[in-house]
């Protein structure tokens, strides 16, 4: 059995320690974080990547009018910053819901009213309105003129107060029609904009109907118009601003989603 003297043991120990130093197992202790750089160094290294990621982040798109498909949205003029969207329950239903929206250049469209219950024509909706068909025309139409039997409630639209807005009789459900035309806003379907809602000139011809208004609700279906409860009608008239080129977008829920 070989014998190792004290000098030999010192030589062997020195050799082992040298090997450990070479392999890194006995590397000198360093301050926390030194192996990966200081906090400032790490931040400086990460900042360019973070900045690049931020630049790659997609821009937020302005909000669209909800419930409208691309075909309907394309018909809303780019110059319009107000839209009353009237969504019918179905193609043959006379019940619908109206919401007023306004558009911000950056954030897009935003509702500025609660959903308002509304009525449309007795037989629902049509994309090819004819006089007397008892359907409301589908489409996007401008809103620029108002009037009524009662004085102007504070609208910024031109307002024609006239006794000719008087209405009597009963509706399709036997409800009284009196007061329905106390306030109206003309829908620019087959009419000359910039004139009283009472103007009977029909640019598309008499067979295409006309006199389609937003008016005070009488508790039942209309012949072709949109009707809103009195308080909602007055709120709408005060909100409509000619400078925002207001429009009405109306139709049944399925058609509007196209």
TrEMBL record:
Biased composition (Low complexity): 43-58
Record-linked InterPro entries: LD_TPept_cat_dom
Positions in coiled-coil regions: none
Superkingdom assignment: Bacteria
Region (Disordered): 30-58
Chain ranges of the L,D-TPase catalytic domain: 95-249
Name of this protein: L,D-transpeptidase family protein
Organism, scientific name: Streptomyces ficellus
């Amino acid at each position: 059995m070989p014998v190792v003297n004290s000098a030999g043991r010192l030589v062997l120990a020195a050799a082992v320690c040298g090997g450990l130093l070479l392999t890194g197992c006995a590397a000198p202790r360093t301050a926390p974080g030194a192996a990966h750089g200081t906090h400032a160094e790490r931040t400086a290294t990460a900042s360019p990547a973070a900045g690049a990621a931020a630049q790659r982040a997609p821009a937020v798109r302005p909000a669209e009018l909800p419930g409208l498909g691309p075909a309907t949205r394309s018909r809303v003029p780019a110059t319009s910053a107000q839209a009353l969207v009237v969504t019918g329950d179905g193609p043959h239903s006379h019940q619908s819901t109206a919401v007023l929206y306004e558009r911000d250049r950056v954030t897009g469209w935003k509702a500025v009213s609660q959903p308002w219950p509304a009525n449309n024509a007795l037989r629902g909706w049509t994309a090819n309105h004819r006089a007397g068909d008892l359907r409301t025309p589908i489409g996007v139409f401008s809103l620029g003129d108002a009037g009524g039997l009662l004085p102007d409630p504070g609208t910024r639209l031109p307002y024609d107060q006239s006794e000719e807005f008087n209405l009597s009789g009963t509706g399709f459900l036997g409800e009284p029609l009196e007061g329905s035309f106390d306030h109206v806003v003309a829908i620019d379907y087959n009419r000359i904009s910039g004139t009283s809602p009472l103007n009977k000139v029909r640019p598309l011809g008499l067979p295409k109907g006309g006199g389609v208004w937003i008016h005070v609700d009488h508790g039942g279906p209309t012949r072709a118009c949109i009707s809103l409860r009195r308080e909602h009608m007055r709120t709408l008239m005060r909100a409509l601003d000619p400078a925002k080129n207001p429009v009405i977008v109306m139709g049944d829920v399925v058609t509007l989603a196209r």
